[in-house]
Amino acid sequence: MENKKIIIITIVLFLLAGTGTFVFASNQGSFNEEDIDYRTDNDPTYEKVDGNNNNNSGGSSNNNNQGTVDEDIPPVSNPGIIEDPDETENNSGNGTTNPGNSSSSNNNTSNGSNNNNGNNNSNNNSSNSGNNNNTSGGSNNNNGENNSGNNNQGSTGDTNKPEDKPTKPEEPEKPIIKDTTPPVLKIKYNTTNATKGPVIVTIESNEPIKALSDWSLANDKLSISKAFVNNEKGQVTIYDEAGNASTIEYNIQNIDNIAPTATVQTSNNNGNKLTFRDITVTITADKDIKPVAGWDLKDNRILTKTFSNIPNAEYSLKIYDLVGNETEIKYEIRNYDPTSPEVVVEKGEKETTITMTYKEPLDDTWVQNENGEYTKVEVIPNNSDDSIIITMPDGTIKVYDSAPNLSIKIGNQKADGTFDKTNKPVEIIIESNKELQPLEGWEISEDKKTLTKLEYNAIANRKVTVSDLSGNTTTLLYTVANIDTTPPGIKMAVASKPTNGLITVTLITTEPTIFEDETWSARKVGGFAASYTKKFEQETLEKGAEETFYFIDRYDNEATIKAILKYSNGKITIETVD
User: Are strands 502-514 and 302-307 parallel, antiparallel or unpaired?
Assistant: First the structure.
C-alpha cells in the first residue's frame, strides 16, 4: 500500500514540475542511491548532502534553490523508480522505461549564464531526456551532472507533452496502373446494298468510350452510332475513359436517293406523223429500273408497249429504280388514226371485184361518193396472183390478196382417178403458188409452199382448210381408197352337229384371205376365201384341237394365228395362243 502511495506522489510531483510550480530536483544537495532505505516496512529516508547551486546570469536566473529539503514534506521515493513491475507503463517515445533512471531537469537561461555545479551520483547515468532548454539573449550552462533517475532514451521534448502510444503500421498504398492503351475499334454498316437510306454506321469498341457529338452512345458505352442520309466519307476520333484516342474511317457509297429520269419516243415520231398503225411507246431510263406490269423491259432500262385503238391523249406512267426512287413519266399519243379503208370483195366466176372506201382520198384515183366518202374499185382475174395495195400516210397496207392456187395429190391415186391397193400409209400433198401458213397435223416445207400428211386408213371426202400469209383461205376435199394396213383375223367359228363321231368346223375370217392348208377347204371368190371348213373327231374337239393359220389378205397384209378350237354343248370356242 505504501508503495502505491509513493508512486502516486511521484506522479503528482512530475506534473507540478511540468507546470513550473514546483521543482523536485533541488540543487541544494545531492543524495546517493545507497542513502535510501527500501525496506517495505519503513518509509524511505534521505540523508542530506550539501551542495551548491550557482545560477550566474547576466540578467535574471530561474531555479535558484538555496536551501535544504523541508522536513515537513513527507518522504518521497525516487521518481525514476518504479517499484511494481506489473504496473510499468511506457512513458518514453521509444516505448522503453528503465527503473531508477527517469530524471527531469529544467535549465533556464536569460541574458546570461546559469551554472549549476553539483553532483548527483546516484545512478551515474547521463541523460538528456526531458530537458527543456529555453534560451533568450544569452546562454544557460548547467555545469554538473544529475545522474539520479535519468532515463537514457536519446530523445528531447517537453515534459508536459502527452506520451506517444504505439500505432499500427500503415499498409503500403497499392500501385496505380495508368491506362495508356487506346481502344480497339470496329465499324459496321446496317446495309452495304444500294438503298434510299439512311445508312446507320456503328463503331464498336473493346472498352467503354466517351460520348461524341452527333453520335449516339450505347448504354454500355461500348459503341456509338449515327444515321447518314447521304453518301459520305470521313473519319472519327474516339476516346476511352482514360483519354486514349483511336481514329477510324467510314465510307458510305451505297445511298441512292436520286429519282430516275427518262426520255419518251413514240413510233409515229412523237405524234408528228399521221399513222393508222399500232402505236409503240418507248421509255428509256438513265438508270436501271424495275419491271412495269404490261410493259416489256429490255436491258433493265428500256420499257416498250404497243397500243391498238388508243385515243389521242396524254398519259402518265410511274417508274421506279432498283431502290424505290419514283418518277412519273408522261407520254402523248397524237396523230393516230387506226381506221383503215373498208374493203368489199365480190367473187365472180372468172374475176373478183374489190371495192375500197375511206374517209379521205389517199391519191387522185379515189372518187368521192354521195356520202362524202372516197371509193376506189379494182377487178382482178380469179386465177391471178395480183394483190391490192393501198398507200396510207404511214406506209402501205395490203387490202386484198388473191387466193393461192392449190393442188392436192393422193399417194396411191392414179392419173385416171382410181387408186392402187396398198397396205402402206398414203401421203397427202398440198402444193401452193404462194406461201402458206402452218397447219396443225401437217408438215410445212422450208419454202412454206407445200403441206404434207400421212393417212393410214381409207377415208372419203375429208376437208382441209389452207390459209396463205395474207389470210386468204381455201377449203379442199380429198379421198383415200384401196388402203388397208390391218392384218386379217378369225371373225368366228361354227360347229355342226356330231355325225358318226365327227364335227365339221367352219372358220369365217375378218376379210377375204388366202390360207394354203389342204386340211381345210376354202370357199373362194376371186382367189380369196371368206370361210374355211374342216372335220374333227368329236372326242378330239372336246379335248381341244390346236391349229395354226397363216392368212394373207388382198392388200398383202399377213397374219399368223395359233388357236385352240374346243367343242362344248354344241358350240365351238376359239382361244388364241401367243
Answer: unpaired
